[in-house]
Amino acid sequence: SGILYIVATPIGNLGDITHRAIETLKKVDKVCAEDTRNTRKLLTHFGIQADLQALHDHNEQHKIAQIKNWLDAGENIALVSDAGTPLISDPGYHLVNELGSENYRIEPIPGASAIITALSIAGLPTDRFTFEGFLPAKSVGRNKALQANAKETRTQVYYESSHRIDDTIAAMHTIFGAERKVVLARELTKLYEQVFRGDLEGLLDWINADPMHQKGEFVLMVDGHEEETDSDAINSSSEELLTILLDELP
Ligand code: SAM
Predict the structure, then answer these.
(1) Which pLDDT belongs to residue 247?
(2) What local confidence, expressed as pLDDT, does residue 234 receive?
(3) Are strands 155-161 and 217-222 parallel, antiparallel or unpaired?
(4) How far apart are the C-alpha atoms of 145 and 143, rounded to whole Å?
(5) Res 244 pLDDT > 90
C-alpha cells in the first residue's frame, strides 16, 4: 500500500520550505490540506499541481476512511497544514493515530514549527520545556490552566493569536507575578518579526504601548518557576534566626 507523508510547510517565509517537501508534494497522488485555498496558493508558488483534498477537524473521521482506501489502492498521500508542522496545534491527530495503529506506513518530512523556531532564539532553558499550545478561550478555563502551571519549573511555551494576546499577558501577570521572565516572539520569519525579552511587567507595558504589537501570530515563552532549594530554605530560616538573635542583642 501507499505511504502517508506528514509534510511541514513554512511558518511565514516561503524560503523555509524544504527540498524534500517540494519533491514530496510534487510526487504524491493527493495532498490533504486544512484549507485547500491556502495550500493551493502555496503549491502554485512552487509550481506544483496537486489533487487537493480538505481535511479539517470537522471532517477528519469521514476522511480517514477515504484516505485508507486510497492508500490501500497504492496511492501516496501528503498531509499539510496551513503553516508549520501538521498535528502541532493543527489537524491530523486522529488520522495518524488510527493509521499508525493499523500499521500503515507514515513518514515525516520535517521542517518549520513555530515552537522550536521560537525556543531557538528565546534564550530560556530548552533542556526541558512544556508545550501548552493554545490556552482555553474563556477566561475561567484560561485562569485555571495558568494556575495549574504557576509552579511549573520548566520553560512553558504557549501559542496565541492576536485576538487574545493582551488578555493572556494580563492574566499571566496576575497569576505568575510581575517579575516572571518571559520572551514573546511575534511574526517569526515574516516581515515584521519582533521579539520582546523581559519580565511580565515590561511585557504588559509593551503589548499595550502600540496596537501594532498586538497584531499577527505569537509564541509566548515563560521561564520556569524557581524552585526553592533546600539551601534556599536553610538560608532563609537562618536569616530569620539571625534577625531574632540580633533583636535580642543589647
Ligand atoms: N502547526 C503550526 C506549527 O507547527 O507551529 C502551528 C499552527 S497553530 C494553528 C498557529 C499558531 O502557531 C499561531 O497562533 C501562533 O501561536 C503560532 N505561529 C505560527 N506561525 C507563527 C509565526 N510565524 N510567528 C509566531 N507564531 C507563529
Answers:
(1) 76
(2) 66
(3) antiparallel
(4) 5
(5) no
**How do strand 30-33 and strand 77-80 relate by DSSP bridges?**
parallel
158 pocket-lining for ligand 1 (C-beta < 6 Å) = no
Q: What is the pLDDT of residues 3-12, one digit of tens each?
A: 999 999 999 9
Question: For the residues 162-191, what does the mean pLDDT come to?
Answer: 98
Cell numbers for 57, please give them. 477537524
215 Cβ contact list (under 8 Å, min separation 6): 162, 192
Q: How many Å apart are CA 79 and CA 8, to the nearest integer?
A: 9
pLDDT in tens, 65-115: 999 999 999 999 999 999 999 999 999 999 999 999 999 999 999 999 999
Best probe residue, ligand 1, of 159, 195, 222 (max atoms within 8 Å of C-beta): 159
Q: Which atom of ligand 1 lies nearest, measured to the CA of 159?
A: 16
Q: Which of 158, 151, 4, 139 is nearest to 72 (CA)?
A: 4
CB of 83 within 6 A of ligand 1: the answer is: yes
- Residue 114 CA to ligand 1 centre (angstroms): 5
**Ligand 1 within 6 A of CB of 117:** no
